[in-house]
């Protein structure tokens, strides 16, 4: 009897301890050890959010949903706006904007529309481990959408970049569903920049706002110098390892799903999660906007923490009433703007005093942070992790078809589109399909492993 009582007490104590830890876990705990971001590196985020919000407007000259500050863009610089009717459900609506003030060409993609069946079809076009790409795993439906969008707009983007002196940055951005499409577009363009006029890697940027988990950990770390994810406090989507298709199947009972996922992941060891090459993550370097504290009411002046996490990369569900509201693009834009103003105020000094951190030194710090994250991924034996972002560059050059091999490899130009780049064929140059239709990097097929 005493033994049974002792066992019951241990079980009760264990369950109580778990419940206490889970209920007191807040979003800011994920980034508690991260350094603060600087105003220079975070400066693009609020205006990128405003560009995404502008997609929702019918007429940018007479906006209906703009905040008090407006969208702060020039309607004459909008190159193209594409609606659901034009995408035929193959991609979310998007906007191409030539920002001459900041010397950027921006492709902004809107988030999930809860009343559009085509968005759900895009999300459901996947299953765990279905799509291997660039030595890792990605979401199949989002990859197909990214390739379709590049097929449609690559000539427009190439013309804009060349006409502006081949000096502008190419920025891909999106919210929620659109963040996954933008992230995979940036990966393809980084690896095949010659198809857009020879744009180099350091001219390609991606800002994934409220990012979807769309790529495996090795890819998330490998492209952390290109992709920047923005997460507001307790946002559920970057933290939920459940596949996207399962999340939005249960959107009407999302709190129940979040609790069950939280309970399940409690019993999965950290090492097992890292060894699962099919597990998808939020991409790139992460900016975490923190505005709430434990056992404190209301919102506080937001601060932004930035890092390239490897182990413990937003793996814990936050049981919070703000888990879904923090996913909204409106809230993210407002808090990002407040955070940027606060960073500028805190760093403002007299003109005679130089800034504490020089811009060149900060860039060197970010590059070192990326190298350290890559080395950390290799040391943790994460599948397909590499030591440097361009470890595979020599192999890619070898795989380029020579004149004598032109008959055996699909031509990179589409015969039916008047010589424009067909990105499906570009992908096929470097990746091949197995019997089940999964894309594999050609280098991997020769690997004895």
Automatic annotation (TrEMBL):
Where is each Fungal lipase-type domain found? 106-242
Q: Name one GO molecular function term.
A: hydrolase activity
Q: Which residues does the UniProt record annotate as the domain Mono-/di-acylglycerol lipase N-terminal? A: 7-70
Task: Tell me which UniProt keywords the record has, alphabetically.
Answer: Hydrolase
Q: Where is this region: Disordered?
A: 379-420
* Highest rank taxon of the organism: Eukaryota
Q: Which InterPro entries match?
A: AB_hydrolase_fold (IPR029058), Fungal_lipase-type (IPR002921), Mono/diacylglycerol_lipase_N (IPR005592)
Output compositional bias ranges, type Basic and acidic residues.
Answer: 395-406
Does the keyword section mention Amino-acid biosynthesis?
no
User: What is one process in the GO biological process aspect for this record?
Assistant: lipid catabolic process
Name this polypeptide is given: Sn1-specific diacylglycerol lipase alpha
What species was this sequence derived from? Quillaja saponaria
């Amino acid at each position: 009897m005493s033994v049974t009582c002792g066992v019951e007490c241990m079980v009760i104590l264990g369950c109580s301890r778990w419940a206490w830890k889970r209920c007191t876990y807040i979003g800011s705990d994920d980034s508690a050890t991260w350094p603060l971001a600087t105003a220079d590196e975070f400066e693009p985020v609020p205006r990128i959010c405003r560009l995404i919000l502008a997609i929702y407007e019918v007429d940018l000259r007479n906006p209906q949903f703009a905040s008090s500050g407006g969208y702060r863009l020039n309607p004459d610089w909008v190159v193209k706006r594409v609606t659901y009717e034009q995408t035929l459900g193959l991609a979310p609506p998007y906007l191409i904007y030539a920002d001459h003030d900041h010397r950027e060409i921006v492709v902004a993609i809107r988030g999930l529309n809860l009343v559009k069946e085509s968005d759900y079809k895009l999300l459901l076009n996947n299953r765990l481990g279905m799509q291997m790409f660039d030595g890792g795993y990605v979401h199949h439906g989002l990859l197909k959408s990214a390739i379709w969008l590049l097929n449609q707009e690559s000539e427009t983007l190439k013309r804009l970049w060349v006409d502006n002196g081949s000096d502008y940055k190419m920025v891909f951005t999106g919210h929620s569903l659109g963040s996954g499409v933008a992230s995979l577009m940036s990966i393809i363009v980084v690896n095949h920049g010659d198809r857009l006029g020879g744009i180099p890697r350091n001219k390609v940027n991606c800002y994934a706002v409220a990012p979807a988990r769309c790529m495996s950990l090795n890819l998330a770390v490998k492209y952390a110098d290109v992709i920047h994810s923005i997460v507001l406090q307790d946002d559920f989507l970057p933290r939920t390892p459940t596949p996207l298709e399962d999340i939005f199947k249960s959107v009407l009972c999302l709190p129940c799903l979040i609790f069950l996922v939280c309970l399940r992941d409690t019993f999965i060891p950290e090492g097992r999660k890292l060894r699962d090459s099919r597990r998808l993550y939020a991409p790139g370097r992460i900016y975490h906007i923190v505005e709430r504290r434990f056992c404190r009411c209301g919102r506080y002046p937001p601060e932004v923490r930035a890092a390239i996490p490897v182990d413990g990369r937003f793996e814990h569900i936050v049981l919070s009433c703000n888990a879904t509201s923090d996913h909204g693009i409106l809230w993210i834009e407002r808090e990002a703007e407040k955070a940027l103003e606060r960073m500028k105020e805190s760093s403002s000094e007299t003109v005679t005093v130089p800034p504490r951190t020089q811009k060149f030194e900060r860039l060197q710090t970010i590059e070192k942070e990326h190298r350290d994250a890559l080395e950390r991924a290799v040391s943790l034996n994460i599948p397909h992790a590499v030591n440097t972002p361009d470890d595979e560059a020599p192999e890619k050059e070898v795989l380029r078809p020579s004149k004598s091999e032109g008959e055996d490899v699909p031509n990179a130009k589409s015969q039916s589109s008047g010589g424009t780049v067909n990105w499906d064929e570009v992908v096929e140059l470097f990746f091949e399909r197995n019997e089940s239709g999964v894309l594999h990097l050609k280098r991997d097929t020769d690997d004895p492993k």
